[in-house]
Write a structure and sequence with these properties.
The chain has 311 residues and is of the alpha+beta class. Helix content is 20%, strand content 29%. It is built from six helices and 19 strands. Strands 6, 7, 8, 9 and 10 form a five-stranded mixed β-sheet that branches. Strands 14-15-16-19 form a four-stranded mixed β-sheet, sandwiched between helices. Strand 2 and strand 3 form a beta hairpin. The protein is elongated.
């Protein structure tokens, strides 16, 4: 079930950086000319990098063919990762002003995180082409489906939001509600924290990092190991997918095993445009349980019954 959901993500409320800061829209107009970009995957595979693209002809026909050829071609000499993983190829057709991008079956073998980056990079690249106002994906000539089995449909410039992250001093402030535990380790306690961070960091990652730093208020106790590593965190289809390394599940402390799970779930859902959280542990993702009975890979919703009422 997990794999199926990963493969058929719906039109996503995707934010490589996350909501909460002022969104910057790239200004394609520089002077009298127009700037174009080809999008690739960053080395850490957590975001996109853009490379300046200067077409020989600024016509829709030329740019479509040239961009398609560039994205299908894997350049091993570049520092960035090619947008398309090995074996994934695409072609296109045009329906009015909608570009229909058709992928081969290898598209369905991508991980959730990579599929999101591919989708964003392809759409952002081709929407620069004159005459193209929307992009639709198909796989083997069948519409890409969302988690409910419905066609994802057309994607436009509004489908994806992203900060450019080019300005090294570009920061924003956000206030998060974090959930730690009480002295007995049986309940969650709220802690409000205002964080200043680079807007090139996804909002969901900031939340998890703050959780791992532990509480700052008296009477609050940590729920996560500070030395745990976040392997990946992605928001798609109103679901936040979180992957920790093995330290997350091997962390031994005298608290209910529900507490770490719902500490993560409640903290994320309080601040993200999402309804559920799925947690996995380990790079091989073989672990199925956290503790003795908390299932991994299931979709967790917020749990207010564990939260100590505020006075």
């Amino acid at each position: 079930m997990k794999k199926k959901i990963c493969l058929i993500l719906s039109v996503l409320l995707f934010s490589i950086i996350g909501a909460g800061c002022t969104i910057e829209v790239e200004d394609a107009q520089k002077g009298k000319g127009k700037s174009y970009y080809i999008y690739e995957v960053s080395q850490d595979e957590n975001g996109l990098q853009k490379e300046s693209y200067v077409p020989k002809e600024e016509t829709g026909e030329y740019m479509l063919k040239d961009m398609m050829q560039r994205l299908n071609h894997k350049d091993t000499d570049k520092e960035e990762l090619s947008l398309l993983p090995d074996g994934v190829q695409m072609n296109y057709s045009i329906e009015d002003s909608t570009l229909v991008v058709n992928f081969n079956s290898k598209y369905s073998e991508m991980s959730c995180a990579r599929e999101i980056l591919v989708r964003a990079g392809v759409v952002k690249t081709f929407l620069q082409v004159p005459g193209i106002s929307a992009v639709r994906f198909t796989v083997n000539n069948s519409d890409l489906l969302d988690s409910k089995g419905q066609p994802v449909g057309t994607m436009t410039a509004d489908t994806f939001s992203e900060f450019s992250g080019n300005e090294t001093d570009a920061y924003c402030n956000s206030t998060f509600t974090l959930y730690f535990t009480d002295k007995e380790g049986q309940h969650l306690v709220k802690e409000s924290r205002t964080v200043r961070y680079k807007r090139s960091i996804p909002r969901e990652r900031v939340i998890l990092e703050q959780l791992m730093k532990g509480p700052m208020e008296k009477g609050h106790y940590p729920t996560l190991p500070e030395n745990a590593e976040i392997l990946n965190v992605t928001v798609a289809d109103r679901i936040c997918y979180v992957a920790f390394d093995g330290v997350f599940s091997s962390y031994a402390q005298d608290i209910s095993e529900q507490i770490p799970i719902y500490s993560v779930v409640n903290s994320l859902l309080d601040s993200l445009d999402a309804d559920k959280v799925q947690i996995s542990v380990g790079e091989d993702k073989k672990e199925e349980l956290f503790g003795k009975k908390m299932a991994l890979y299931r979709f967790y919703e917020r749990n207010d019954e564990l939260v100590v009422p505020e006075k």
